[in-house]
TrEMBL record:
Belongs to the 14-3-3 family. Residues 88-217 form the 14-3-3 domain. Pfam families: 14-3-3. It comes from the Eukaryota. Gene3D superfamilies: 14-3-3 domain. This is 14_3_3 domain-containing protein. InterPro entries: 14-3-3_dom_sf, 14-3-3_domain. It comes from Echinostoma caproni.
Amino acid sequence: MLDSDHVLWLKPGRASTRILLKLLYSSGQLPASAKPYKVVILKECAEDEHRDLNYDLFQVAILTERETRRIKTCYERLVPTLRLAILHHPIDEKKEGLKHKLRNYCEEFIELVDHRIAPHFWVAAPIKGHFLRLKADYLRYLFEIHPKCGAYQVRAHNAYTEAKAFFTHSHMTKTVEWFRLRLNYAALLYLDGFPTAAMFICQQLLKSNKNKLMDQTMEQRIRRNVEFFKRACLG
């Protein structure tokens, strides 16, 4: 049959379906209507990409801009896909295996940032800021799936503080990445049980958007978060 993206889908469950999905993924053509296979295929493809990346990184002493782009692309596909699979997987036994994978990938990424990206002056400030923001986000993800682990909570707060200091020092507080950083920190505050503080941060972001630094999609997301946090405060 043809889906809304005019892609021919084979009968679910056939081996050729999986191959087709992987080909579409590699070319960036995998549509949203690929569910329920989408998350599974995304995870498999991202893990294949991660394996190739690890092999290549093992052979280089200094990361170039090309490698940092590959790291960014790889982990931005891999980690959110695993997180999504964990949040929506109905079987607890499967979830535990996925949580273990997510923990390993996040810690691996954090080690890359701490030892091979953040300390080096040749990495451009916007790239470094992006990686520091991702590091904080991934620690927040780990706190999400391990809410009783205080270590992840503390590390996430420290990482957001580190990223905020870097953005401030590098004069990057009027960038889209800064808005993402603060928005995601608000999410951590909500997880901590402080919806009022989270709402305040989002309201400040909206006030500081006089120069229209963020696009309409992000502005709408922040406004929805303000309403969500407001309801949480009242509840």
